[in-house]
Amino acid sequence: MVMRSIRLTISVSLLVVFLLLAATAGAVPVTAGAPPVAMATADGGRSVTLTDALGETVVIQGRPERIISLAPSNTEILYALGLEDRVVAVTDYCDYPPETADKPTVGGFSTVNIEKVIAMNPDLILAAPANTEDLIDRLRSLGLTVVTLDPQTIEDVLDEIELLGRVTGNEAEASTLVAELQARIDAVVAETGNRTERPSVAHVIWYDPIWVSGRDTFQDEVITLAGGTNAFGSREGWSIVSLEEFITTDPDYILVSSGSGMGQEGYDAVYNYIVSEPRLQNLDAVREGRVYVIDADIVSRGGPRIVDALEEVAAILQRETPAPTARATTDAAESPGSGVVTIVFALFVVFLLWKER
Question: What is the pLDDT of residues 107-125, one digit of tens each?
């Protein structure tokens, strides 16, 4: 029973790693309140008042010039708005665009180094729920200005781009970006919206056990807007399904996650499992070559690239994108870049064994 518990908990921890590294939102939607209001102050300055995703009223005086981003999705929005010169620090997981590699880092999601943050002298910190409320409260108690973003839908992403445009004084850039993204979304919907036949699509995050994306997730919305039906849309959020249920469901298309810091062979670990597992060979998607790899970052992060994911999935469902070929190596644990997952596993096992003593 102890080993079975350890195996299950490790599987759960792996999902958490994938979702946190992708900077996904939490399971319970938290949306921002009233839109930000920008106005001139008595001395001719600029003041913006907003309610963030945690329900906090935040007043931002002037135009922020030293911004710290504590989530990859926030960082991607800042760069898309042309604000990279004002970004003074990011997290260890902020890896897009590639230019973020030149920025100082202040730690992980819940392991932010507060001393480093203070040393950066920021006038705006952009957080996410994954940073934890304790950390966010601590930063606020130090007199730092913190705005928490938590988009749950593609529309939320567009709203938060406009919000950051107002907060930073880049309203014009935000409006242009939102218009471009909306036009791309509309183009996909115009192509797929009137379809009478909508193939069933499963999005698989991991395979041991099988984790899938249910309703109220970015992946569910992407599948739907791209012209498909989520094969596991009856499930809330991310869920484990048995191999038997997966086989019985027999989705028309299978999308599998990749990315999030794994190495070349591990990059396609889920794909290789799906196309190589003997018990899955009779699935229509496997037999007919309708299993596709999609980068976990673009389909999970609440940033502008979620529209890239929408276009990619739409192309897949229109059979405009060829399916990949399985790699020779399927053991992600042996890939040189999978150290993050391996370390997390090891720490979790040590912790659980210590608790059983």
Answer: 998 899 999 999 999 999 9
Between strands 146-148 and 124-127, the pairing is parallel
Residue 248 domain boundaries: 10-24+196-334
Give me the helix-helix angle, 154-168 and 306-317, nearest 10°: 150
Do 200 and 327 fall within a single domain? yes
- Give pLDDT, residue 345: 33
The closest of 324, 343, 325, 323 to 333, measured between CA atoms, is 343
Distance, in Å, from the CA atom of 173 to the CA atom of 85, rounded to the nearest integer, reads 15
Distance CA 201, CA 116 (A): 44
Question: Is 330 a domain residue?
Answer: yes
**341 pLDDT higher than 50:** no
Domain count, the chain: 2
Alpha carbon distance 25, 159 (integer Å): 15
What confidence score (pLDDT) does residue 336 get? 32
Q: pLDDT tens digits for 187-210?
A: 999 999 777 889 999 999 999 899
Do residues 64 and 74 make contact, with C-beta atoms less than 8 angstroms apart? Answer: no
% of the chain surpassing 70 pLDDT: 74
Q: What angle do CA 161, 167, 173 make, to 5 degrees?
A: 50
* CATH number of the domain residue 276 falls in: 3.40.50.1980
Q: Per the domain annotation, does 105 fall within a domain?
A: yes
Res. 94 pLDDT band, cuts 50 70 90? very high
Instruction: Express each pLDDT in 243-266 by its tens digit.
Output: 999 999 999 999 998 854 344 445
